Amino acid sequence: MFSVLGRPYRHCDGLTRRVLLRAGALGMGGLTLSDLLRAEHDSGVGSSHKAVINVHLDGGPPQQDMIDPKPDAPAEVRGEFSACSTRLPGFAVSELLPRIGATAEKFVFIRSLVGSQGAHDAYQCQSGFRTVDLNAIGGRPAMGSVLTKLMGSPHDPAPTFVDLMQGRPMVRNSARPGFLGPSYQPFRPDISDMFSRPLEEGMKRELAAAGEKHELQLKLLGGISVERLNDRTSLLNHLDEVRRHVDASGMISAMDRFHQQAASILTSGHFADALDLSKEDPRVVAQYTLPAAQVPEGRFGTSDEPMATHKFLLARRLVEAGVRCVSISVSDFDTHTGNFSRCRQIVPIVDFGLQTLIDDLDQRGMLDDVSVVAWGEFGRTPKINSNAGRDHWPGVGMAIMAGGGIRAGQVIGSTDRLAGAVTSRPVHYQDVFATLYNNLGINAREITITDPTGRPQYLLDRGEPLQEIL
Questions:
Q1: Under 8 Å between Cβ of 172 and 214
Q2: Of 17, 76, 125, 344, which is the most buried if we count CB atoms within 10 A?
């Protein structure tokens, strides 16, 4: 059974939106989810502004040094940071998260994230699945690619899914369309001129191997007018009509779709403007700028610079432009060495950027429509190693959620006295995704998409929305 959650909207004929969705799934008029969402947008009702901002804490954030401090643990576990109380009774965060701690009532803190495959990329944080799932047919698609399939149109002036992740996640192609194919890949603008994220040598080799197609030019080149682009598109359409008859793989139709949207984006200019922070109110840019007095000294090799707080502003602007899913990253939490010095540089970026984003969304009346999650591929070892670092710890990780209409001001799950094992309320990656889909009005355990073999695949194969925050 196909269903979509959320409050029903009564149409002029007396039928509710929910009834229409079920009727469409049963073949009454062939109504689809995309049809209804588009109709709702045209009529000004429904969930047309709902979106997800996915913040990847690249490298694996140390839970003990962020939202699960253990002040009573031995020194070799406790580390260098103090625990600071919050407005939530009995809940403390690291001294490196003062802004989030001071507004904890706007967040949900998950201290018991489980199910990590231990891989050094963002794939689980993009899809909820392990890389081996359906790998023989291309793998599981990222959530943004699924939303492109369900909600997108090649004629939309903004893509459904935009991937702004840098460094490790982009090089390893974490936000991929999986078995849905290339027409559902995210748009990957090149933001390297805006945010410097140095790469390790291994990452440079991976990026070189990816070729030149990992980004998309978003502005018309000099000398190419909109009219010339339209003429060329018309010619390509005629050629493709002939080629399509001899294309048994379906690749041409897939690229047609991507081509059409690229043309829509280029001709409108709306999406490119959203990526141009010079078009934002300077006072708002200043709000997202880490004050000079708070900028940590020094910068380790693969760290984001303090101006990375502006990535959160870009995400908000893209959502306003119509993007349904935006992925950004903050690097680099791969703290095998110098965990504490590196956290002093990178955690304040997360604290300032994330809290500013939530405040901004709230003030603009967007917070109930925009779901935000910040998390990484795994946690970090309780015991500090001989290099003053913390190593990989897939057994338990952390996540911070906000927005999307959830009941904030809650702490979910707990760990033992070393923050090394879950002692209550384990939360799987797919539970988080089930909650995000739910916030968009989608029941991920009932809706299916068809894989290349013709078999229907549920959006998630396990996991339930976190009922305590709905």
A1: no
A2: 125
pTM for this prediction: 0.84
How far lies 28's CA from each of 21, 31, 33, 168, in Å? 10, 7, 13, 46
Any idea where the domains of the chain sit in the sequence?
51-215+271-433, 220-268
Q: Which residues pair with 161 in a beta bridge?
A: 325
Task: Please check the confidence at residue 432 and state whether its pLDDT lies above 60.
Answer: yes
- Measure Cα distances from 113 to 124, 326, 337, 379, 440 in Å: 12, 22, 24, 9, 22
How confident is residue 8, by pLDDT bands cut at 50, 70 and 90?
Answer: very low
Are β-strands 392-393 and 379-380 bridged in parallel, bridged antiparallel, or unpaired? antiparallel
Q: What is the DSSP letter of 119?
A: -
Distances in Å between the Cα of 469 and the Cα atoms of 60, 283, 365, 436, 465 are: 25, 33, 20, 11, 9
DSSP 289-346: SPPGGGPPS---TTPPPGGGGHHHHHHHHHHHTT-SEEEEEEE----SS-HHHHHHHH
Q: How confident is the model at residue 171 (pLDDT cuts 50, 70, 90)?
A: low
